[in-house]
Specification:
heterodimer; A: 321 residues; mainly alpha; ABC transporter involved in vitamin B12 uptake, BtuC; 15 helices; 72% helix; disordered N terminus; B: 506 residues; alpha/beta; Rossmann fold; 3 domains; 6-stranded mixed β-sheet; 17 helices; binds adenosine-5'-triphosphate; binds magnesium ion
Chain lengths: 321, 506
Amino acid sequence: MNVKQSKKWNTDDLRELGIFIAFIIIVCVLMLFSPPGFRSGRNMLNILKQTSINGILATGMMYVIITGGIDLSVGSIAALSGVMAAHFAHPGEYPLIIPILLPVFIGTLVGLFNGIGVTYGSIPPFIVTLGSMTIFRGAALITSKGQPVFNVSKPFEAISGAFVFDTIPVLVIYYVVITLIFAFVLTRTVFGRHVYMVGGNETAARVSGIDTFKVKIVVYMISGFLAGIAGLLLTSRTISANPTAAQGYEMDAITAVIIGGVSMSGGSGKWYGTVIGALLISIIANSLDILNVSSHYQPVIKGMIIILAVLMDMKTKNRGR
Amino acid sequence: MSDFFLAMHHIYKSFSRVPVLKDVSIQIRPGEVHALVGENGAGKSTLMKILMGIYTADSGEIQVQDKTVQIHSPQEALHLGISMIHQELSPVPDMSVSENLFMGREIRRNHMGGLSIVDQKEQIRQTHAIFESMGVQMEPKALMRNLSVAQVQLVEITKAISLSSRIIIMDEPTSALTEKEVHTLFEQIEKLRRTGVGIIYISHKLDEIFRIADRISVLRDGELIGTHTAAELSKNALIQMMVGREITAIYPKIETQQGAVALEVSNFSRGTHFRDISFQLHYGEILGIGGLVGAGRSELVECIFGITHPTAGDLKIEGQTVRIRHPKQAIAQKIALITEDRKRTGLNLIESVETNIAVVILDRIANLGIVDSKKSAELSDAYISKLNIRTNSRGTRMYKLSGGNQQKVVLAKWLLSEPDIIILDEPTRGIDVGAKRDIYLLMGELAKAGKAVLMISSEIPELMGLADRIIVLADGRLTGEILRKDFSQERILQYASNMNGESETV
Ligand SMILES: Nc1ncnc2c1ncn2[C@@H]1O[C@H](COP(=O)(O)OP(=O)(O)OP(=O)(O)O)[C@@H](O)[C@H]1O
Ligand SMILES: [Mg+2]
């Protein structure tokens, strides 16, 4: 009785499928009612491309939320690191590696700052990252003197602009690779299990010998690191850096994670849920665009669909109680 | 009209197709104490949660005063005069005692256009009055998070009593109470009984059951084995009904060979929690720590384990002074601590049995940081069967396990870390007689294998049955040490109640 049943789905796993059901229903409805433009293969790739930057932010956000925290600073980190990337990406000034590594480094550093504030400073994550959201948005404005930074080199432009086999946007490849790496870390490594344990019961985690401070700091560093990458990719894609870019990106990332079934109270959630959450957000935006829905109505519809998706998720989760 | 206030008829319940209750019927008379006993996972809590409307029975009938009722929520149960003190208490930590007591039925004043304000003063006054009438000493304004488990339990009991319920269910109410507090509780139960309240009393402490129960119902594997008056049952007969076999010698003592000093603390102090504690623990020895709940015993072992930090004193392991400032350092020194509050410090309830069992040894079963999931599965299964943990599979979430089986998971996870020094803080809380004996045997085997075992227990028979030596704490001080040949209940109690904390030299 103990050993068997290992491969079979248990009811908890089945319940987590709720988000898939919601996803499939929404996609099917869109398929039925949308013009052929939505269904085309090119548009599908386009949706994936639109998902990639938010998806990368959501991956880091997922780690933070599983530990029971939140990171509001990712949009500002993306803006600041984007500006810094653009500064060092003017043609013929610095080797390409500088505008690639610098934003990632800055992001990780801000993450370290957040992590230390949350752990050693014992300040609530909401407050720490709200503070750094404001500080580093300011830093982006200061370093760019409030102006967009133009004139980036061709190779830098290619970082986000290139295609693989002339068809697949390289952004999609980045997103897939990052997702797989961080999914592996979350599900298969000791660190990943520690992340869940810290979110599930922090005191018990500490008593079990887990360095909870270290886990939390690393988690914020991951979020910052990925926000740095997002800033780099954003700047390369738009061929310029705007200090006011990526405003509200943190909310899209949080939304993706929550739609994906990660509990705000920490300790639970699956990586593929977050992927679906991120996809759902861009599918909604994309189909509304194709349907020519006025941009004033789009947020209203988006918000309603988000609530609906989470509601369906909760309904399936509660069945069988 | 029948003489029952409450009756449950032919109750069936399955969780994900696993039957947990099979055709269970019980009847409760007004003014009786009805004990419900059975092994861990027998279905006691589930039956009571059905009564409280937390779960719905698959089939069966509930009657209150001969009328069939449907109970869909605890509110409806309360309305019918049924309340429950849960096994796993969950108070709101940032609320005060009086706020908790009046939660959901706050006393209001100032109906300014529909706007009413909670009358804190009146609530505090009434809380005082209730405590007074019950003989409980507690500050109504104290925050729940600062209370001991025992105090939280008392608040819950007070709450049920003040709701003027006709039936009060108590699911292992005394598991964290001192002898004195148990006495207070029993006085309350006696008063309630005289006013015609029926009590359903779940406990694994058989002595208690024979002290207060009028009738006893026994559950085994989800089936009702029988309901008898307490007078017509002997303790052995009851045990046999519970476990389906005979158990002799509840406290098996295995003779061991005492070895070198494993752990030594000298002049250990931590603020007001405990002061100036010195003792040695040897390999091959079971050292008991006795005392009343609140004497500072848990604080002492938490400090040894690095959960908190001492303000003075030294800790030596095998003669070497060590500084332990985090549990991970204690684990590196091959120490294990089975904490007393499994919900708070022991388990991640939303995760699986396997995840919880493997958490301490993850590093050891990993290659380059990647968990060897096959090994983790094997080890979990091995300990699930070794400790006879009742769960559908290793993947089952912890919150679905019965209280006693959760406790066994905590044990499993620490045994798996293969410690040399094992500290157990109330290790058998909520564990049934059969499993208790298994744990005692295990402790004996560990000591026999040369491990050092340090055990805190508030149950004096348990201490006297197992320990080679007992030290007693009172009010944060070590008040006495007793060798096995001198063990007596009186001496332990005498040292434990030494409230001015004068140390005796032994
Ligand atoms: N929510 C749930 N989902 C699935 N299984 C459950 C759930 N709650 C309880 N069970 C299972 O039902 C059985 C009975 O559990 P219950 O808590 O009623 O036992 P108990 O008699 O109170 O035991 P204990 O003395 O250990 O508290 C156990 O095997 C437990 O694993
Ligand atoms: Mg129970």
